[in-house]
Design a protein that fits this description.
Length: about 280
């Protein structure tokens, strides 16, 4: 496996792959890799000749009081896991490499899709995501790029970006990987104290409960949100940012669950750690 730390080195590798007609799969990450990331790399390995994993804690998607500085950086261990899962290239640039000058070009998806849910409390987040993913797409020219359903809103925003800009890449969306007890895998789980880690189980439990309500015929979105909120509030360490249901793909507000895919998404803080999770309630 090759580790590229500069744009120039990566471009050389991409050129070689393209010249030999190899298909390229890209897995963008912020590192501190876990089995959630591993599942994306594994999928990319099965579907492409060359797998590129990017590891970059992207400063432009963090707000002023967020965890940019403390975000875990574990490049050595990440390279070992990436190689084990079939990565051919790890691209781990510095911020200067990705953002060479202060004045820059943004790629931004406008409209409610970036303003609801995480966009409400993290107003610059998605602009940072779409800008860095555009840069990565341009540098790696992937046939397919892999993202996790764990970041459900990110998936919808990137889908819109690809559609609106006619980008020649297929987005492959992989299911949420969880710990055995149900907690969705996240690089931020390492921030949790023992007590918070136990408390955080209320997230997957409340989503399971919502799935059960839905399976039993509850189609009133408000009722599902209320019961899910109530369950999370019963956990004293949980501070809710949002619990919401929107219709996919545009994340439109709804009262009753619409035919098709409806996203039940939540963001909840445990101490200083903000966790997100979601499930899709599909009305056939
Ligand atoms: P991150 O490093 O957190 O920015 O995540 C990089 C990619 O891995 C994103 O597409 C995430 O959605 C995906 N990912 C993170 N956690 C999980 C998980 N538990 N299951 C599946 N994919 C995940």
């Amino acid at each position: 496996m090759i580790l590229c730390k500069t744009v120039a080195a990566l471009q050389q590798e991409v050129k070689t792959a393209k010249n030999t007609n190899k298909t390229i799969g890209l897995v963008p990450t912020m590192g501190a890799l876990h089995t959630g990331h591993a599942s994306l790399i594994d999928a990319a390995n099965k579907e492409n000749d060359v797998v590129i994993v990017s590891i970059f804690v992207n400063p432009t998607q963090f707000g002023p009081n967020e965890d940019l500085e403390s975000y875990p950086r574990t490049l050595e261990a990440d390279c070992i896991l990436a190689e084990k899962m079939g990565a051919d290239i790890v691209f781990a640039p510095t911020p200067k490499e990705m953002y060479p000058s202060k004045d820059m070009t943004w790629v931004e998806v406008c409209g409610d899709i970036t303003k609801v849910l995480c966009g409400a409390t993290r107003p610059i987040h998605f602009r940072g995501v779409t800008t860095i993913v555009s840069k990565l797409f341009n540098l790696t020219q992937p046939d397919k790029s892999y993202f996790g359903q764990k970041d459900a809103q990110q998936v919808q925003v990137l889908t819109r970006m690809v559609k609106d800009l006619f980008l020649p890449v297929e987005l492959r969306i992989m299911p949420i990987i969880r710990e055995q007890d149900g907690l969705a895998k996240s690089s931020r789980n390492t921030y949790l104290s023992q007590k918070e880690r136990v408390a955080a189980l209320v997230l997957s439990k409340s989503l399971k409960n919502a799935e059960q309500l839905f399976a039993n015929g509850q189609l009133n979105a408000q009722k599902i949100v209320e019961e899910t909120t109530c369950m999370i509030k019963s956990e004293p360490l949980a501070q809710i940012d949002y619990v919401k249901i929107y219709a996919m793909p545009e994340l439109t507000p709804i009262d009753g669950l619409l035919s098709g895919r409806n996203l039940l998404a939540l963001a909840v803080k445990f101490g200083k750690t903000r966790l997100i999770d979601n499930t899709i309630l599909e009305v056939k």
